[in-house]
Amino acid sequence: MAVRACGLIIYRRLQPAPSSKVTDSIEYLLLQTSYGTHHWTPPKGHVDPGEDDLQTAFRETQEEAELTLIEGYKKELHYPVHGKPKTVVYWLAEMKDCNTEIKLSEEHQAFQWLKLEDACKFAEYEDMQTTLKEVHQFLCSRE
């Protein structure tokens, strides 16, 4: 049976320097897992019985009141984990208050706010790197 997880790709906008482009002020939130290879990923988690995908995504962020869901972006990734198929669905959300405290669950040991290039380096997996680049292009096209 396929595993299903859902999450949010969370970004924030810092105050840009007068000479910089608006898109240079975007940072993405990545969390480091406290298990396995300690990989970095946007917040996500398995769908609980009776829960819909978007409820799962918000539950996994624990920051629901501070986030604004961005219409028009949804991404589904498919890959094997321990020989079983896994589907992860991501939505895009903006954290309006740049000073919001990030609360880690026992599943994560660290977090980073990263510009696109560094987020891609931390993310490691090619499909996540591609997704982050797509999100960035989506946000830039809305400017």
UniProtKB/TrEMBL annotation:
<dbReference type="InterPro" id="IPR000086">
    <property type="entry name" value="NUDIX_hydrolase_dom"/>
</dbReference>
<keyword id="KW-0378">Hydrolase</keyword>
<comment type="similarity">
    <text>Belongs to the Nudix hydrolase family.</text>
</comment>
<dbReference type="GO" id="GO:0006754">
    <property type="term" value="P:ATP biosynthetic process"/>
</dbReference>
<dbReference type="GO" id="GO:0000166">
    <property type="term" value="F:nucleotide binding"/>
</dbReference>
<dbReference type="InterPro" id="IPR051325">
    <property type="entry name" value="Nudix_hydrolase_domain"/>
</dbReference>
<dbReference type="Pfam" id="PF00293">
    <property type="entry name" value="NUDIX"/>
</dbReference>
<dbReference type="GO" id="GO:0006167">
    <property type="term" value="P:AMP biosynthetic process"/>
</dbReference>
<dbReference type="InterPro" id="IPR003565">
    <property type="entry name" value="Tetra_PHTase"/>
</dbReference>
<protein>
    <recommendedName>
        <fullName>Bis(5'-nucleosyl)-tetraphosphatase [asymmetrical]</fullName>
        <ecNumber>3.6.1.17</ecNumber>
    </recommendedName>
</protein>
<dbReference type="GO" id="GO:0004081">
    <property type="term" value="F:bis(5'-nucleosyl)-tetraphosphatase (asymmetrical) activity"/>
</dbReference>
<dbReference type="InterPro" id="IPR015797">
    <property type="entry name" value="NUDIX_hydrolase-like_dom_sf"/>
</dbReference>
<comment type="function">
    <text>Catalyzes the asymmetric hydrolysis of diadenosine 5',5'''-P1,P4-tetraphosphate (Ap4A) to yield AMP and ATP. Exhibits decapping activity towards FAD-capped RNAs and dpCoA-capped RNAs in vitro.</text>
</comment>
<feature type="domain" description="Nudix hydrolase">
    <location>
        <begin position="1"/>
        <end position="136"/>
    </location>
</feature>
<keyword id="KW-0547">Nucleotide-binding</keyword>
